[in-house]
User: Fold this.
Amino acid sequence: MIQGKTLERLIAFTDAIVAVAITLLVLPLTDFFATLTAGNLATRLQSVTFAHLLLGVLISFFTVFSFWNGHRRTLAPVTALSKSGYWANVLWLLAIVLIPASTRLIVDNTGRLGLMLYTAVLLFGSAVSVWLRHAVNHRVQAADFITSALLVVILGLAWALPGLGSNLFFVLFAALPLHRLVKRK
Assistant:
């Protein structure tokens, strides 16, 4: 069991890793803006390249934030964490640090394979989040699987309709209403 100061340190370390991941997400924006000049500002900001970059960063930012927020809510009442919970947290961190790298796959418009790999990273993070909730709460509810189910749908759509690109991730907006609907029942 992990508890006391050791648990506090684990949570602080986890929060720091999330902060680093979010920082890594915005670095491509910084690189993009570093190449701007007064002469090309309007043209570059209206480019498809910038639109892909901004959309990819926004999708990943809100995904990381959503994962962190769920993680925070899961661990808030915890005073001791089992070995299973510890390893779920470690794998959750792996998913978080893979998000900035895999974001490049959708930003660079790498097609079907890039969309599928990015979605697989998010699905991995979602599945590990469910494992962590189970390790902490010793139960899992149907609502815990909604994000994972939506990511499986996105994975299938990425295979079947890769031309939709990053737009596929708008499906994730259905998660919150579906969570509320399932929890009401």
